[in-house]
Design goal:
single chain; mainly beta; lipopolysaccharide transport protein A fold; 13-stranded antiparallel beta sheet; 1 helix; 14% helix
Length: 166
Amino acid sequence: MVFGKKEGGKIVDQDGSGKATIEFPSGSKYVGELKNGMAEGLGTMYFEDDRQLTGTFVKGKPHGKEIVLTFPDGRKFIGDYTHGRRHGYGRMFFSNGKKYEGEWKNDLPHGEGSMIHPDGTIEQGTWVRGRRIDPSAREGSGRTLNRTLALVVILVIAGILIYIFW
């Protein structure tokens, strides 16, 4: 999503210093620096669903490091944004006390990361599209390789037996 006048936003307050307030038909509001009618520089986006995003904007999209996204249910993300999406390194704090820390791609945990539980236990591993993958189920793991080899051995033995008794 791009935040600026072109998206139906209306500049309702501008103080001449490059800072302004833009209100959108959806009820969302951007307060911060502008360039050519778009969010550019430091600012805060207040969404109609009570989420709040604070950080650096480039060409109307959140982009940079240590951008903060808070949710009305108490969750909070602090980390990297690229072209409007959580992408790179980030930390998500959940209202139940859990914390994910690691790599993000397209707004989801993706790559190496850790889920830290309130009791102190830590799940480390690889995350794909928001879910931790079981290392034993990965293609190319020992378990998959053993199954493949067993199948090959069975087929070779069956072929030899057919040749001998045919």
